């Protein structure tokens, strides 16, 4: 579906609309996401969606930019955080997220006169007061629990899906995603976990290995954050 814009709208904005169907374009979603990142760097306001047509997915881009806005928008701290959160609601890798976020951090530094030579310093500044996966590992160990022990992780062939966390921050300071694989002939499936800071424990939310796709598990975790941990409601929304 293509939007019909008014003449006035088109005089005011540069508009980009693109559709990528996975039954016609290999890696349709990855191509769409790359294009979206490029447009955001150019100062476009970008919205992406996915819809199904007879069982096939179509990935969309709808973007606009004021015609006289030819440079990267100057972002406040709040806007930077919003952009980072948008990035982490995608399937991008950590490297792709870093690539996208870098110009916003640079712009913020220039605006605030911050002179930091290492990305890790910015990560620590943004993470101040937030629960990160490294905090979870430390507290779990301090409470004499063994979720992250090497032998435990190896037994379940378990991985922490860090690329689903912005700067390592837990979703809503509670949730993160792991993946496990029964054996080499079995698929790697995904589980949503909840951290209890008082006990240092890690609990499964929903079912163990409930999700076939990492993105679905991540969306389920965000839904839990938005709906006060209501598992059944989020199952209805996500699946």
Describe it for me?
The protein has 239 residues and is an alpha+beta fold. It folds into 3 domains: 1-70, no CATH class; 74-128, no CATH class; 133-238, no CATH class. Helices cover 41% and strands 21% of the residues. The chain has helices spanning 7-12, 28-41, 77-88, 94-112, 119-127, 133-142, 150-155, 214-226, 231-238; strands at residues 13-21, 45-53, 56-66, 159-160, 175-180, 189-196, 201-205. The strands form 2 sheets. Strands 4-5-6-7 form a 4-stranded antiparallel β-sheet, with helices on both faces. A 3-stranded antiparallel β-sheet has the order 1-3-2. A hairpin with a 4-residue loop joins β6 (189-196) and β7 (201-205). The chain is globular, with a radius of gyration of 20 Å. It starts with 6 loop residues before the first helix and ends with a helix. The model is unreliable at 114-127 (pLDDT under 50).
Characteristics:
three-stranded antiparallel sheet; globular; four-stranded antiparallel sheet; 239 residues; alpha+beta; 3 domains; 21% strand
Sequence-ordered SSE layout with sheet pairings:
Elements: H1 7-12, E1 13-21, H2 28-41, E2 45-53, E3 56-66, H3 77-88, H4 94-112, H5 119-127, H6 133-142, H7 150-155, E4 159-160, E5 175-180, E6 189-196, E7 201-205, H8 214-226, H9 231-238
Antiparallel strand pairs: 1-3, 2-3, 4-5, 5-6, 6-7
Helix pairs in contact: 3-4, 8-9
Strand arrangement in the largest pleated sheet: 4-5-6-7
Order of helices and strands: HEHEEHHHHHEEEEHH
β-strand percent reads 15-25%
Low-confidence stretches: 114-127
Strand elements, count? 7
Could you describe the largest sheet, including whether it forms a barrel?
4 strands, antiparallel
How widely separated are the two ends?
24 Å
Roughly what is the average pLDDT, rounded to an integer? Answer: 78
Which of globular, elongated, flat, extended, rod-shaped describes the shape? globular
Indicate the structural class: alpha+beta
Query: Count of helical segments?
Result: 9
The level of helicity is: 40-55%
Radius of gyration equals 20 Å
Number of domains: 3
């Amino acid at each position: 579906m293509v939007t019909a814009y008014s003449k006035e709208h088109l005089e005011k904005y540069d508009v980009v609309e693109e559709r990528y169907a996975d039954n016609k374009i290999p890696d349709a979603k990855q191509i769409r996401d790359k294009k979206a990142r490029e447009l955001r760097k150019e100062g476009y306001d970008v919205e992406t969606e996915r819809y199904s047509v007879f069982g096939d997915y179509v990935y969309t881009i709808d973007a606009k930019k004021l015609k006289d806005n030819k440079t990267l928008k100057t972002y406040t701290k709040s806007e930077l955080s919003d952009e980072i959160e948008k990035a982490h609601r995608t399937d991008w890798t950590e490297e792709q997220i870093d690539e996208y976020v870098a110009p916003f951090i640079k712009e913020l530094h220039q605006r605030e006169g911050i002179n930091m030579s290492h990305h890790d310093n910015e990560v620590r500044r943004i993470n101040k007061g937030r629960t990160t996966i490294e905090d979870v590992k430390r507290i779990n160990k301090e409470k004499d629990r063994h979720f992250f022990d090497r032998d435990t992780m190896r037994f379940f062939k378990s991985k922490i899906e860090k690329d689903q966390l912005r700067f390592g921050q837990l979703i809503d300071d509670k949730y993160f995603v792991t993946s496990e694989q029964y054996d080499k002939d079995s698929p790697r499936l995904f589980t949503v976990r909840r951290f209890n800071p008082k006990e240092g424990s890690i609990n499964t939310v929903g079912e163990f290995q409930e999700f076939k796709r990492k993105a679905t598990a991540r969306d389920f975790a965000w839904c839990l954050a938005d709906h006060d941990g209501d598992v059944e409601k989020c199952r209805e929304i996500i699946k």
